[in-house]
Each structure stands twice: as structure tokens, then as C-alpha cells.
Amino acid sequence: MNYTIKPIASTKTYLVRLPVLRKGKAIESCIFDGDDLETTFHLGIYLENELVGVCSFFRNNSKLISAEFQYQLRGMAILETQQGLGLGTIILRHGESILKQQNTPIIWCNAREKAINFYKKMGYNFIGEPFEIKDIGLHYRMYKEL
Ligand SMILES: CC(C)(COP(=O)(O)OP(=O)(O)OC[C@H]1O[C@@H](n2cnc3c(N)ncnc32)[C@H](O)[C@@H]1OP(=O)(O)O)[C@@H](O)C(=O)NCCC(=O)NCCS
Fold it and tell me: What pLDDT score was predicted for residue 113?
């Protein structure tokens, strides 16, 4: 597959966040707190110059984890027509390798029920109890040592 992964601006992520994660909602719902912090970065995966997937990495500590330096994965999304082709795996691995190079020991995320198998396959484990995120549904906190 002929793909490219690039760092992208937060505003570019909306092109995938909106149809995949905020379907039918206003574009403002795609803006996440901390999107433009210096410690945050966003990656895009392109197929033939079309942005088909995004994910974002925020420096943020989970109270459930003791490491001092942690990153949170947010806005992990692949366009519906391109899901199941391995692109999610490729872009997330890329992000994890950047974090590893920066000596980040832990990455965590709040996983939707539908995405649990994806994260398990990526080597993530559960921590804590499942919880409800308003308007989105049940989530599971998952983490991985890098
Ligand atoms: C979850 C998501 C990012 C995975 O990306 P992807 O490119 O589709 O995943 P991959 O093709 O790399 O799949 C890797 C594994 O994840 C699992 N997986 C992928 N898509 C899945 C789906 N829709 N439902 C259940 N498991 C899935 C499979 O186990 C797959 O392994 P397999 O190919 O050996 O069966 C993508 O499907 C997506 O954007 N889903 C909708 C949004 C979402 O739920 N985001 C996560 C928010 S926490």
C-alpha cells in the first residue's frame, strides 16, 4: 500500500474526526482541549495524497498510572471506507515510536467498546473500571508500556 505519514495541524484532523468520531455533530465538537499545546502532536496518514486517518498525542497523566511522564492517545480515526486495511495499526505504531524516541514510558487512551480489539491487538491492557463519556458511550481506559 502506498501510504505516507506526516505531522499535521490540529485543524486538519477535523477532516477525519468529524465523519468518524463526531458524525452529524458541529465542527466545533472536533476541537479537543490542548490540541494546540506545544507538547501535543497530530499525525495524518495519506493514501494517494488523500488524508484517510489521524491520531493525536497529548502529554497528559492518568491518575491510574504512576509514571511521571505519560502521553494520552486521542482522536484515533480512519475513514470508514479505509478501515480494516491495517492503516490504524501503521499510524499508531508510528506515533508510539516517536514517543519511545522521546523516552515516554507509557501511552494510554480511553477506548470505545468498538475499538477494544484494535487496542488489544496493539498490545494495550485494561486499567480501572469502564466509564461513560457523555453523548459517546461506554469507554475503557487502556495503556501500554513503550
Ligand atoms: C479503530 C480504528 C482506528 C482501527 O483502525 P483500522 O485501520 O480499521 O484497523 P486495522 O486495519 O489496523 O486493524 C487492526 C485490528 O484491529 C481490529 N479492528 C479493526 N477494525 C475493527 C472494527 N471496526 N471493529 C473491531 N475490531 C476492529 C481487528 O482485530 C484488526 O485485526 P485483523 O485485521 O487481524 O482482524 C478504525 O477502525 C476506526 O477509525 N474506527 C472508528 C473510530 C474509532 O472507534 N476510533 C477509536 C476511538 S477509541
Answer: 94
Contact call for residues 126 and 62 (beta carbons, < 8 A): no
Q: Outline where DSSP puts E strands in 48-98.
A: 50-59, 70-78
Residue nearest to atom 40 of ligand 1 (CA): 77
- Cα–Cα distances in Å, from 41 out to 10, 34, 56? 8, 10, 6
Nearest residue (by CA) to ligand 1, atom 36, is 78
- State which ligand 1 atom lies nearest to the alpha carbon of 83: 8
| 137 neighbors 109 (Cβ within 8 angstroms) | no
Could you read off the pLDDT of 98-146 as tens digits, one per residue? 999 999 999 999 999 999 999 999 999 999 999 998 888 999 999 999 9
Measuring from atom 48 of ligand 1, which residue has the nearest CA?
Answer: 111
How many angstroms is it from 62 CA to the middle of ligand 1?
24
CA dist 77 and 15 (Å) reads 10
